[in-house]
Design brief:
Helix 5 links the parallel strand 4 and strand 5. This protein has a domain of 212 residues: NAD(P)-binding Rossmann-like Domain (Rossmann fold, 3-Layer(aba) Sandwich). The protein is of the alpha/beta class. The strands form 3 sheets. It has a 6-stranded parallel β-sheet with strand order 2-1-3-4-5-9, with helices on both faces. Strands 6-8-10 form a 3-stranded mixed β-sheet. The model has no long low-confidence stretch (mean pLDDT 97). Helices cover 41% and strands 16% of the residues. The site of NADP nicotinamide-adenine-dinucleotide phosphate has 25 residues, from helix 1, helix 4 and strand 6.
Length: 311
């Protein structure tokens, strides 16, 4: 079966896509289709549909998106809403037109209300106001979730929307202007050690709590749910554990064996105070996370050292 199934993986060069690609190879899938953004811009409807018609995939995992941390999301809100709505709409609609039965669409925990009851269940979607700093991304992703839901209802599809918590791992974005908080903390503490700086700046108060999941766990979830028959189209994927941003900074500082003082730059917003996902549904359906933070961080740092040098 794995010789025959043609899987189109979008965004294969990204954090999540590269881990999914590795897993598909490891699991023995032989017909994995990928294409670089410079050859196919998924924001282009005609080119996207033409490509789908050419390759005729059996299943699709959409890991392509415009992604970034709190500042990138806020400053480039227009790009975030446009790019993401275009990419996902073109991919989902092309799946429909070319009769793809199985699709995994990736969203994010930012789709849930800012002051949601914790841990957040899937049915809390659209139950309250969104966090302003990531509203554009959230609105785009909610459109994708609803699109899949309606396509499943009307066209009898099995399109799944996985909502992951914050993800970290090899191949992350370490650009301090556009990255998520966790790779930013790794880079800042690493640089402080390298330059023998005693202070490290953290954006905001350091108090918001975040849930982290190692990227290979998410890749496993994507593959697990791609062919899973279920009536549920919206499924949370997380580790079920949260810590404050300061706590994560302390953990990284310990791993890097470097003591430093954290300075809080309150010019930057905190974002949502908490966004811990309730992962009971994914567990009930048979998936659970396997890699704890300590192990995931070791793997992440190994790759970071390979690219940046060990200190
Ligand atoms: N990172 C997280 O913490 C996190 C958390 C929850 C959910 N997610 C979700 O997981 C998915 C993947 O995120 P990620 O962190 O892996 O992002 P990423 O590292 O930025 O990768 C995104 C990928 O999408 C591709 N892409 C972007 N715009 C494109 C376009 N117009 N046409 C074709 N390809 C395009 C990029 O291509 P290039 O490499 O050529 O730029 C890249 O390969 C997203 O849906 C995101 O919302 C991520």
């Amino acid at each position: 079966m794995k010789n025959k199934i043609k899987i189109f993986l979008t965004g294969h060069r990204g954090l999540v896509g590269s881990s999914i690609f590795k897993l598909l190879k490891k699991k023995g899938y032989q017909k994995i289709i990928t294409i670089e953004k410079k050859e196919l811009d998924l924001r282009n409807q005609k080119q996207t549909l033409d490509f789908f018609k050419k390759i005729r995939p059996h299943a699709v995992i959409n890991a392509a998106a415009k992604v970034g941390g709190i500042n990138a999301n806020e400053v480039n809100a227009a790009n975030f809403i446009y790019d993401n709505i275009m990419i996902q709409t073109n991919v989902i609609q092309s799946c429909l037109v070319t009769k793809v039965k199985n699709l995994v669409f990736l969203g994010s925990s930012c789709v849930y209300p800012k002051f949601s009851i914790q841990p957040i269940k899937e049915n809390y979607l659209l139950g309250g106001k969104l966090e302003k700093t990531n509203e554009a991304m959230a609105v785009a992703k909610i459109s994708g979730i609803k699109m899949c839901e309606y396509y499943n209802q009307q066209f009898n599809k099995q399109y799944k929307c996985l909502m992951p918590s914050n993800i970290y791992g090899p191949n992350d974005n370490y650009n301090l202007k556009t990255s998520h908080f966790f790779p930013a903390l790794i880079k800042k503490i690493y640089l402080a050690k390298k330059k023998k700086l005693k202070k490290v700046e953290i954006w905001g108060t350091g108090k918001p709590k975040r849930e982290l999941l190692f990227v290979d766990d998410l890749a496993n979830a994507c593959l697990f749910f791609l062919f899973k028959k279920t009536k549920y189209s919206l499924i949370n994927i997380g580790s079920g554990r949260e810590k404050s941003i300061t706590k994560y900074a302390e953990i990284i500082s310990k791993k890097l064996n470097y003591k430093c003082k954290f300075i809080y730059n309150k010019k930057y917003p905190d974002g949502t105070p908490r966004k811990l996902l309730n992962i009971n549904l994914s567990k009930k359906l048979g998936w659970k996370p396997k890699i704890n933070l300590s192990k995931g961080l070791d793997i992440t740092l190994e790759e970071f050292f390979k690219k940046n040098g060990r200190i």
